[in-house]
Amino acid sequence: MQERFHNLLKQRFLSEYENNPPLFPWESEVAEYPADVPDFGATAASSLWDAHVSGLPVPGLLPAPLLKALFERCQEIARMPVKQGVRLVRAVEELFPDQLDILEPIADMVLVPAYRSADAATRDALTQELTAVAKDYDSAQPEQQVALSMLAAQEILGALTLSLTAEQPSESRLWMTYKGALNLTATYAEGALAVSVTLPTGGQVNLKGEDVEQQAKRSRPGSLDVALSGLAVGKTYLLEILLADEAAPLSFAIHLAHDLM
Fold first, then answer.
1. CA 176 to chain CA mean position, Å
2. I want to staple 216 with a disulfide (CB 3.0 to 4.6 A). Which of 159, 187, 224, 230 is the partner?
3. What is the rounded CA–CA span in Å between residue 158 and residue 153?
4. Taking the model in full, what pTM does it have?
5. pLDDT tens column, 187-198
């Protein structure tokens, strides 16, 4: 089973990449990606937040130490102004320093669930085989480990990212912790971004842009509201949530899509 998946990945995608490097869906030509991106400050993960991540379908298949490192990295890159394929590569590149040459073709595969020429039955079989890898992750082929880690990163990034559009100007998230449920809703209207967060304990909420910031805090469970006005469409804003007695915040990226008018 593992050998079949390994051959499909290595022979079909790696050889294709070497002879004719595949493009991500948003690319028109092969390009180098910039190393420097705006940074709002380092973010570290906490076991308080890890519990929710380990309950997600694909991330929950990964070994705990790997998942923790991947979650920390995803929190750092979720707000970066780069495309999803670049994020997947950057999410796992430090975990697989000896496999850098296969990261982009595997990211391309992960972002195109149809696996291009594969029919539905083949796709389902590959998915089942990849999931089975998690039962013996350490002995799996590197290509399998990379693919599974990227699928997990894709799911984590989706949980950490809210994208607001004209058709969907409001979006919510529920994040479970051992202290209770955390709920947040972000809404963009008339040039203003408003975020409402319901905390299971006392805590603090920070909404940040490159040169603007709003903060609210409370000592008991309940709701907090923060807002920024005069915002630029196409930008990404950082929402940090810190609960009482926790050293590390949970960070969400809120993207205001270009189709907002």
1. 17
2. 224
3. 8
4. 0.76
5. 999 889 999 999
